[in-house]
Amino acid sequence: MEYKVEAHRIMSISLGKIYNSRVQRGGIKLHKNLLVSLVLRSARQVYLRDYYGGICLSAQQAREWCEGEYMDSEQDKLVPGSTESLPESDGQSEVAVDKQEPSNVVESHAALDVESEASGEQDHAENGVLDSGCSELKTPEESPEASPTCEVSNVENLHEPIVPHTCTNRKRSADDSELTDSLPKKTKVMSSTLISKNDEKKAETEEMDTSNVSSLITIFGSSFSGLLSSEDGAQPDSEAEDSDSGQICCDQMLKNLNPWSTAIVAF
Amino acid sequence: MAGVAGGNDFQWCFSQVKGAIDEDVAEADIISTVEFNHSGELLATGDKGGRVVIFQHEQECKNRPNLRGEYNVYSTFQSHEPEFDYLKSLEIEEKINKIRWLPQQNSAHFLLSTNDKTIKLWKIGERDKRAEGYNLKDEDGRLRDPFRITSLRVPVLMPMDLMVEASPRRVFANAHTYHINSISVNSDHQTYLSADDLRINLWHLEITDRSFNIVDIKPANMEELTEVITAAECHPNQCNVFVYSSSKGTIRLCDMRTAALCDSHTKFFEEPEDPSSRSFFSEIISSISDVKFSHSGRYMMTRDYLSVKVWDLNMENRPVETYQVHEYLRSKLCSLYENDCIFDKFECCWNGSDSAIMTGSYNNFFRMFDRNTRKDITLEASRESSKPRATLKPRKVSTGGKRKKDEISVDSLDFNKKILHTAWHPKENVIAVAATNNLYIFQDKIN
Chain A window 57-116: which residues touch B at a Cβ cutoff of 8 Å? Predict the structure, then answer.
């Protein structure tokens, strides 16, 4: 439980930093904001994982769903900087590269059910399935959020109703070790089972009666997209994006400030 | 050339401190960059107020040959002013991010100084003679009445008090959308590179109205941005090679002969992350804040938040040496995130013979590592230990439960006193350490 509070605290601190960066002298610093957004997303993932503490999902169903997706095992070996060498489009490979970050913590999300599986299964199905699948869905339209929302739409379109497992008890330390074991930084290994579980949780996110949390989730959907507007859809790809992003984020944040502060008070 | 204290024959001692003593530090006085020139005769500092101060090493006193000469102010000038970008409604800070000296080619000295957006080439020249005896004007400059002139004379050069003049010779502007973090002069002495968060440009020192973009990592869709460029440097003797580091802890070495746009690297240096140490802040602390080639060009050094790594350019999969700077901070990352200290960008430097490396820490501590003996030392830049030629006492931070005498506990470290910028004389054991608004100069004890 304390991890949830800690994650919450880190999220609010991160939001404060992003907000303050708007008024900082010298303009918005891209590097610092990128790092803060990464922390924010990690914290959000942990927060959501805790939120769904009791929900477990069927691994088998998730795997079946994944097999239906286009698989490209080459994307496992994606190395930053050499994405151009892959036959896929740049947008696709970029999405795949980007996914490395959410997938790290996505796995922690679905840590719940991982423990119940054999540890070998975690290494199973190492593929960029979701990447390619997602990007194919994404590229036709300019959706402001990249991976996770895209995953949601995948789920909603393709997935059959989920039968929740009874969840197994897991210790907090086990969760953490799973989080840390999940990825060495370099390899783009992702367990399709875990990602699909995350999708399902995301689908349920919208249903949950936490409008402030969900709206913040939509803002900070993936690595950096959270700093761009989630309302206006496609952003003009201008050079002023980094400065605009702060403003729009601030507006979004301001709208959510009141419900957010009440949420904080509630904790 | 000896490296690091630890043996009986080598010790660092205080030489000088420059800057105000006041507790109240004006933001503009905070030193933001320190750099020796190639001979070590000149030491330049830039501050947040956009000023550059150059110190010159005066000749050793003939009467007292045991004393190394001191550094005294040679020139001070305002390099950059605050600007306003009307299009984006953004203020451009005048803070000097980097100073790099050009190799000396004549009696004048040249340096490049940069703020977030604009790079300037400054000429620092001496004038110690003045022409006297003009025909058309008086000594005080007033024009003489031409009808009163009855004879011609040839002006004569008379000695005058030494005047050091700094004049901007080139202004390289409008080439960077994002904040410039690095500049590096190429070994061909004709070109230099400048790097911002997403792009690296190659300039010719004579041409200001255009530059070549040689690296562009801006994604087509900014939502997909995952890493930024944090530092870049030209190879010290191969003019076609440069490296740049990223916020993900990776370094890319590029060869400009392969392509005009060096988006694909020649070498890629990354150490696999230790999964057991993963936390919320793993990405932040792996971000590289500085990269420096060794003088030999065989190695390069990178600084991330907690460690310094030495890489062999021939081995890409892991560094050859890793030195922990302040590992005791690993458990404090959350509070360091809150107070923004986790975003501090520490620099690192080599000594002239590449046998030792130095970097800064908090509480005005700085660390030196001897690569040969594997010894390390922590020293402090403080006014208390600022007696002339006083030997610096090694400091220690206590990490365990029991704090020994003279040790400092992690919780009593002052995180506002940070040493981000240090420089090592290219030939001698003289170091310059910037502690907020003070510049400390230390040297080895001459026996």
Answer: 79-82, 84-85, 90-91, 94-95, 97-98, 100-101, 104
DSSP A185: S
Tell me the pTM. 0.71
Residue B5 lies inside a defined structural domain of this protein = no
Q: What is the pLDDT of residues A62-107, one digit of tens each?
A: 455 555 544 444 444 433 434 334 343 443 433 333 444 444 433 3
Give the residue from chain B lying closest to A84, CA to CA.
B264
Range of B99's domain?
12-140+154-444
CB distance B209 to B229 below 8 Å: no
Task: Report if residue B146 sits inside a domain.
Answer: no
Which residue among A27, A98, A245 sits closest to B90, beta carbon to beta carbon? Answer: A27
Question: Does residue B145 fall inside a structural domain?
Answer: no
d(CA B122, CA A245): 36
**Distance, CA of A10 to CA of A21 (rounded, Å):** 16
SS3 assignment for chain B: CCCCECECCCCEEEEEEECCCCCCCCHHHCEEEEEECCCCCEEEEEECCCEEEEEEECCCCCCCCCCCCCEEEEEEEECCCCEEECCCCEEECCCCCEEEECCCCCCCEEEEEECCCCEEEEEEEEEEEEEECCCCECCCCCECCHHHCCCCCCCEEEEEEEEEEEEEEEEECCCCCCCCCEEEECCCCCEEEEECCCEEEEEECCCCCCCEEEEECCCCCHHHCCCCEEEEEECCCCCCEEEEEECCCCEEEEECCCCCCCCCCCEEECCCCCHHHCCCCHHHHHCCCEEEECCCCCEEEEECCCEEEEEECCCCCCCCEEEECCHHHHHHHHHHHHCCHHHCCCCEEECCCCCEEEEECECCEEEEEECCCCCEEEEECCCCCCCCCCECCCCEEECCCCCCCCEEEHHHCCCCCECCEEEECCCCCEEEEEECCEEEEEEECCC
- pLDDT-above-70 percentage for chain B: 96
Mean pLDDT per 10-residue section of chain B, whose length is 447 residues: 50 91 89 97 97 91 68 96 91 97 96 97 94 86 85 92 95 96 97 97 97 96 94 97 97 94 92 86 94 97 97 96 96 94 97 96 96 94 86 89 82 95 96 96 81
- The answer to whether A182 contacts B338, with C-beta atoms less than 8 Å apart, is no
What is the count of residue pairs from A and B with beta carbons less than 8 Å apart?
Answer: 149
Q: Cβ separation of B277 and A94 shorter than 8 Å?
A: no
What confidence category does residue A143 fall into, taking pLDDT thresholds of 50, 70 and 90? very low
Report pLDDT digits (tens) over B49-67.
999 999 999 877 666 655 6
In A24-166, where does DSSP find H-type helix? 30-51, 59-67, 90-109, 111-114, 119-122, 129-138, 147-158
Kindly report the nearest CA distance between residue B92 and chain A, in angstroms: 5
Interchain CB contact of A30 with B (< 8 Å): yes
Domain assignment of residue B6, yes or no: no
* CATH of residue B411: 2.130.10.10
The question of ipTM being above 0.95 is answered as no
The total number of structural domains that make up chain B = 1
Q: Of A235, A242, A231, A221, give the one whose Cα is nearest residue A33.
A: A242
Partner residue opposite B225 with nearest CB, options A179, A224, A243: A224
Mutate to test the interface with A, among B87, B223, B277 (most CBs of A within 10 A): B223
